[in-house]
Amino acid sequence: MSAGSGSRNTNTEPWGSFDDNLIQGGGSAVIDMENMDDTSGSSFEDMGEMHQRMKEEEEVAAEAAATEDDNTDDGEFLGMKGIKGQLGRQVADEVWQAGKRQASRAFNLYANIDILRPYFDVEPVQVRSRLIESMIPVRMINFPQKIAGELYGPLMLVFTLVAILLHGMKTSGTVIREGTLMGTAIGTCFGYWLGVSSFIYFLAYLVNAQITMLQTLSLLGYGLFGHCVVLLVTYNIHFHFLFYVLWLLLGGLSTLRMVAALLSRTVGHTPRLLLCGTLSLLHMLFLLYLHFAYHKIVEGLLDSLEGPNMAPMQRVARDVPELTLNATLRIQGVQLLLDSFST
Amino acid sequence: LSDEASRPFAGLSDVSISEDIPVEGDISVPMGSSRRDDEFSTLDEPVKETILRDLRAVGNKFIHVLYPKRSSALLRDWDLWGPLLLCVTLALLLQGGSADSDDQGGPQFAEVFVIIWFGSIIITLNSKLLGGTISFFQSLCVLGYCIMPLTVAMAVCRIVLVGGSGPVSFGVRLVVVTASFGWSTFASTAFLADSQPANRKALVVYPVFLFYFVIGWMVLTFSPAQ
What we know:
The structure holds 2 protein chains of 2 kinds.
Chain A: H1 18-22, H2 44-77, H3 79-111, H4 124-133, H5 152-171, H6 178-206, H7 213-236, H8 240-263, H9 269-306, H10 327-342
Helix pairs in contact in A: 2-3, 5-6, 5-7, 6-7, 6-9, 7-8, 7-9, 8-9
Chain B: H1 2-10, H2 33-41, H3 47-66, H4 73-76, H5 81-93, H6 105-129, H7 136-145, H8 148-162, H9 167-192, H10 201-220
Helix pairs in contact in B: 5-6, 5-7, 5-8, 6-7, 6-10, 8-9, 8-10, 9-10
């Protein structure tokens, strides 16, 4: 293969030389000899690359030829117009190319939602069985337990938790300030799920446990199933004792499940203690927080928003028209709430 | 190998088509061409006609939501005017709630907007990730139009609340909101579930259920300012 510049008829051989195929148009299509090393011409990738380069060069040459032709035509009438026409056309062409490139890049970025697709590849039966399994601790800790790596179940559980929190706000008689409540609920739930998963993954990375980020997200997400059940029950039936029993029972079961899964994947006493202790602490405390302090925080928010009318440390049940759904229970619940914080 | 390799290059050797080679073939134009002609000429029609045509399209889709059959009208000619109208109406009706100060009405409006649109986007993304064949805007269109029963329920609730906010009114409102919530979910399922593989319909329906549940809860627990 020979490098050369724009000659159309170097057709010396009867079978059509290489020059005929490679050099196009009237422009200077220079073939860089640097790239023509031993592997060129034989490997598929090189042919593809060469083809692409040839196509681009051909396009450029065709464009140059076209504008040249037009230029000569226009130049016959008016010299200046010819030059302007060519310039304008080239600028327009470049703008179009740049825009097309940007659009395709943006589209590829958007289309990258497909990287999440494998994590949503589940059947309803699988989701149901995983929900039930999240409450059943498995005893085997000598062999790494299988943790499902999916994101559909955890995501739906987080949204369910948000809905339950909102429901809790309404039935407990707090003032309905949709904006603050919704934002806080979503922020709390997603913050817990993403934040604690990342933290546990970080700790696992430190102690060299065999668990991936996807698995911690999945594990913690399914652990929220217990939280959802407990909160759903106790937001409607305001008995302290019931809450404590459910907290220990359901919260404890889901924590044990997660702890067993982590134990099976960690080696050494201290790492196990660190990892599992942190997880159980955060998990149980989160449920406690959601039941007690979440209401308090919201009430504190409302108190502070109200202004100087209320004394800062005074907490009273708000006297607003609310649901009369569980009137007596609500009064009892609020009373118990106030009592528990005065002791 | 060099033969096949040189074939892509063969066509490049002569970019112009010489005149003595006839170009022939068949071109079939899809039958939407008459509609295209109409579109080109709609620039000259009076504004009233344009608006009425769009309103008629929106109204037609409302009727499709009221009687959810498995028709493809909502999907084929999707538009987002209807959802926008419904969203604004619902947000306006949710104004004037029992807030302590006047400027708390602001976040409520924005919050309803954000919930509806971001909820719809998340449901759409979820259904696409689960392997749905419906497009992004079609799904937004369906979910937006199916808010209509809840908007109607909100209007009814406001009227009922004029009469008082005792347990009777609460019972009536509960029934109305539950019925419209079920209607919304059923209507949107009738459109969305068709685009999913048969065994995954439940996975798509659940977020829709949650979405309308949250909106229904906002409608039900709305209490007017004293």
